[in-house]
TrEMBL record:
<dbReference type="InterPro" id="IPR013892">
    <property type="entry name" value="Cyt_c_biogenesis_Cmc1-like"/>
</dbReference>
<comment type="similarity">
    <text>Belongs to the CMC family.</text>
</comment>
<keyword id="KW-0496">Mitochondrion</keyword>
<dbReference type="GO" id="GO:0005739">
    <property type="term" value="C:mitochondrion"/>
</dbReference>
<protein>
    <recommendedName>
        <fullName>COX assembly mitochondrial protein</fullName>
    </recommendedName>
</protein>
<keyword id="KW-1015">Disulfide bond</keyword>
<dbReference type="Pfam" id="PF08583">
    <property type="entry name" value="Cmc1"/>
</dbReference>
Amino acid sequence: MHPPLDGHLHSLDCRAVIEELLKCHKENPLRKYLGVCNQLKRDLNKCLQEEYLERRQRNWEESQRLKEAARNIK
């Protein structure tokens, strides 16, 4: 399962893969079930995973910064 594929939620790289996958699904309505678009799906999963890890790292760094700021208030 992946997050919503709205373009504004993802990087330019992932948006390009999303567009290619949607185009493949549109052009191959039956063959998509036979794996015609599987490589694009794998590419999308990889791109979304990289985005997730980057976002998780940024959030962790921000939480550490906020914790440190809270400790310094006393």
